[in-house]
Amino acid sequence: MCTIFAGQDPKNYECQTRSIRLGGHSTSVRLERMFWLVIDRIANSQGMNTGKFLSTIYDEALDINGDVSNFASLLRCSCLLYLNAPEQTMHIANTELKIRKLTNN
What is the pLDDT of residues 71-85, one digit of tens each? Predict the structure, then answer.
């Protein structure tokens, strides 16, 4: 079997909890460290801090779906979308961000 998976540093999958504000309420999100690293990278590429990025994702998911029943899973799947096709995913995200900025001005 591939020891690259089983033999990785346990810190990679150690859970970390971060406090954030979503919808005007303080809450916390618990994810594995590697997911936080990807989220931080995506937020940075969008010109946002991680808190703003998470709040934006939450608000958009709420608008689209009417509910966000499992935000941590939404974040994990967002990371997988990004890792599966980073250039395509970020092109779409950046285009939507530019459109939002133009319509808000």
Answer: 999 999 999 999 998
